Amino acid sequence: MNAVNTWRRVLIGASVLALLVAAGSAPVLAQQLGSFCVPALKSADGAQIYAHICQGCHMPGGKGAVGAGHYPALAGDRALSSASFVALTVLNGRRNMPRFARRADAGEFYFALPVLSDAQVAAVTNYVRTHFGNHYRGKITAAEVKALPR
Questions:
Q1: Could you give the C-alpha distances from 121 to 43, 75, 135, in angstroms and in order?
Q2: Residues in contact with 65: Cβ distance below 8 Å, sequence separation at least 6, in sequence order
Q3: What DSSP string runs through 54-119?
Q4: Which of 20, 25, 40, 50 is most buried, judged by most C-beta within 10 A?
Q5: What is the tens place of the pLDDT at every residue in 56-99?
Q6: CA-CA distance, 125 to 130, in Å (whole number)?
Q7: CATH 3.60.20.10, domain 36-146, yes or no
């Protein structure tokens, strides 16, 4: 065995050890921060929330996408006629869409998913119902979102 192979093995071993140590301290860090280093989205503006969270899957124009998965179009979607349905979908997820409500069990870690407040859920719900060619009347409030089941 030559010196290059020996050094490669040493570097790989050190890297694996560093990853194991870092992984072992992740739960402690998560408890200290309340999540896995996910900065809270502070905006209460529906357009900004959509741009930061939703458009990665549903696309900037709300047209949806098909590829590595199926991301339904929000543009012209009749299901958006119910503000409660939209808010419940944002809160609890649906099919392969993740949930954005904080879970009641305090021990759960949030892996890179932001948690939205009731006001933020209301704002993004009202945004998608009035954009992308949607013209649904009536707005949902943060108080109404808070009353929805989680």
A1: 11, 18, 18
A2: 57, 58, 59, 71
A3: IHHHH-TTS--EESSSEE---TT-GGGG-HHHHHHHHHH-BTTBPP-SPPS-TT----S-----HH
A4: 50
A5: 999 999 999 888 788 999 999 999 999 999 999 999 998 888 88
A6: 9
A7: no
DSSP string for residues in 8-57: HHHHHHHHHHHHHHHHHHHHHHHHHHSSSS--------HHHHIIIIIHHH
Indicate the burial class of 142 (C-beta count within 10 angstroms; 0-12, 13-18, 19 or more). middle
Strands 70-71 and 65-66: what pairing?
antiparallel
Cα separation, 56 vs 78, whole angstroms: 21
Beta strands in 46-99 (DSSP E): 65-66, 70-71
DSSP annotation of 92: H
**In 3D, which of 121, 120, 45 has the Cα closest to residue 87?**
121
Considering Cα of 100, then 146, then 94, then 67, what sign does the dihedral take?
negative
Q: With bands split at pLDDT 50, 70 and 90, how would you rate the model's confidence at 126?
A: very high
Residue 40: strand pairing partners: none
What DSSP state is assigned to residue 106? T
Q: How far apart are CA 82 and CA 35, in angstroms?
A: 32
